[in-house]
Amino acid sequence: MGITTIFLQLAKGMGTTVGIFVLTLLFSLPLGLVLSFGRMSKRGLVKGLSKFYISVMRGTPLMLQLIVVYFSPYYVFGIRISSGYRFTAVILAFVLNYAAYFAEIYRSGIESMPAGQYEAAKVLGYSKGQTFFKIILPQVIKRILPPVTNETITLVKDTSLAFVLAEAEMFTIAKQIAAKETSVMPLMAAGVFYYLFNLAVAFGMEYIEKRMNYYR
After folding, report:
1. What CATH number does residue 40 fall under?
2. Residues whose CB is less than 8 angstroms from the CB of residue 189 and which lie 6 or more positions away in sequence, other chains included
3. pLDDT value of position 1
4. Where in the sequence is the domain holding 128, given as residue range(s)?
5. Is the pLDDT reported for residue 215 higher than 60?
6. Where are the alpha helices (DSSP H) in 40-136?
7. What does pTM read for this prediction?
8. Considering its fold, how many domains does the chain have in total?
9. Cα distances (angstroms) measured from residue 182 to each of 167, 174, 175, 179
């Protein structure tokens, strides 16, 4: 089987891989910010629950979380699981997992900001919301871009875990072709795809980081 044919067959799963990546970032980044607020809350219960959630999500394998999210509706609520729920379960598990990591990244960035900036904003008449979203958050985003980039690159590779729920993403298809053709070429082609995907992600994040250099 030629390399062109292999890439054409892999293209069927590339859309799913990209979809998992985009949807996970789209929902986990804002959810992570909300979780970071809970983690820093002065209310003991809210802080405790947020801390426990983050601990569980970061302390257990994503593979296990995928299985729990997929089978929970049936075993907990008795709801019959349809094949169409697979992709939804993958996105839910990925979002819940990555939001926990992003929450800690946000928290480290927010807590690294000098207290003097909050005090100066208060003197200038800014409300707490205005202070955070207009002054603090833009600087936090600049500071946390490197660790966010690392997590984003990890996410690209983690999309292959969707095979646990029999979701036909790109790497799953590559393994199927490799088994059928008794060749490692499809796996090598998959490796090239992941590398180029991560290269594009790293380039995009580096571009954003340079654009935000005015916050120095």
Report:
1. 1.10.3720.10
2. 3, 6, 7, 10, 174
3. 57
4. 3-215
5. no
6. 44-59, 62-77, 85-111, 115-123, 128-130
7. 0.88
8. 1
9. 22, 11, 10, 5
Q: At 123, list the tokens.
A: 């003197």
How far apart, in whole angstroms, are the C-alpha atoms of residue 57 and residue 100? 6
Q: What angle do CA 37, 28, 54 make, to 5 degrees?
A: 55
- CA distance linking residue 15 with residue 119, whole number of Å: 48
Q: What is the mean pLDDT of residues 141-164?
A: 90
Question: Is residue 167 scored above 90 in pLDDT?
Answer: no
What is the b/e burial string over 96-135, where b = at least 16 CB atoms within 10 angstroms of the residue's CB?
bbbbbbbbbbbbebbeebeeeebeebeeeebeeeebbeeb
Look up residue 167 and give its DSSP letter. -
Closest Cα to residue 101, out of 41, 201, 31, 157? 31
What Rg do the C-alpha atoms of the chain give, in angstroms?
21
Residue 2 has pLDDT above 70, yes or no: no
Average pLDDT, the chain: 86
Which of residues 31 and 79 earns the better pLDDT score? 31
pLDDT band at 23 (very low <50, low <70, confident <90, very high): very high
Q: What DSSP character marks residue 42?
A: S
